[in-house]
Design a protein that fits this description.
Layout (H helix, E strand, L loop, with lengths): L1 H15 L1 E5 L5 E4 L7 E9 L5 E7 L6 E7 L2 E7 L4 E6 L9 E8 L2 E6 L2 E6 L16 E3 L25 E10 L7 E2 L27 E3 L14
Antiparallel strand pairs: 1-12, 2-11, 2-14, 3-8, 3-12, 4-5, 4-11, 5-6, 6-7, 8-9, 9-10, 12-13
């Protein structure tokens, strides 16, 4: 039944442009760099029954700037730094209720706004320079966790403590960027190979869909959360 489970997950990805991570030590999803510069937005929807875990992380390659989104006791917390010191924004409660929730981060120069299900808060960064890193050295956008190789290269993380954040058992869909690469909000297509590092059944290497696939690392693919995609 292993091949059938993998096929069902791929079908869910095709229809909803979403994916499921099981929160195991090797699970995460990787998307292209968010070229926010001075202005941009990033949004996604998530569903989980886990109260604590890393939802999203990206940074400038180990200098100062970073964006970290995580769930803390069911509340969504954005921590970020644009060079003038870390800022924290917390919104919501009981967001681990198994229902879909929409998250959006918008930034315009020194102002950064976090919006969750219609509720929003804005923070103003200190300093004179508000550019988010440099595209050439910025990291990719990671969802649900970050790659294990960062354990041996902590200097490449602007926020090294992110390596200790719990991985997330979560369903995610509709990842959308607006940035300098595309000022108009655009849903992010899968742009890497899909890998299934399975347990409980044999899994023989990467499953290729096409040239536009995202990279999903997981030790156990389940469709428990996918079953409720359209509820």
């Amino acid at each position: 039944m292993g091949w059938l489970s993998a096929w069902l997950v791929l079908c869910a990805i095709e229809v909803t442009r979403g994916f499921v991570l099981d929160g195991s030590p090797t699970s995460y999803a990787r998307f292209r760099k968010w070229n926010a510069g001075l202005n941009g937005s990033l949004e996604f929807e998530f569903k989980t029954d886990q109260a604590n875990g890393l939802l999203l992380y990206t940074d400038d390659g180990g200098m100062y700037d970073f964006f970290e989104i995580k769930l803390v006791e069911g509340a969504l917390r954005l921590r970020y730094n644009l060079g003038g010191g870390a800022q924290i924004v917390t919104i919501g409660r009981d967001l681990n209720d198994g229902h879909w929730h929409k998250v959006q981060v918008r930034r315009r120069n020194e102002r950064t706004t976090l919006r969750v299900d219609g509720e929003e808060q804005t923070r103003v960064s200190r300093g004179r320079e508000f550019q988010f890193g440099r595209l050439q050295s910025n990291s990719d956008v990671y969802i649900g966790g970050i790659p294990a190789w960062y354990y041996t290269k902590l200097t490449l993380l602007a926020l090294p403590s992110v390596i200790f954040e719990p991985r997330f058992r979560v369903a995610v869909r509709n990842v959308v960027y607006a940035d300098q690469s595309s000022p108009v909000p655009r849903r992010q297509e899968f742009n890497q190979e899909v890998y299934h590092l399975c347990s409980g059944f044999h899994c023989s290497g990467p499953l290729h869909r096409n040239k536009k696939t995202t990279e999903i690392f997981t030790t156990t693919l389940t469709n428990r959360l996918v079953k409720a995609e359209n509820k």
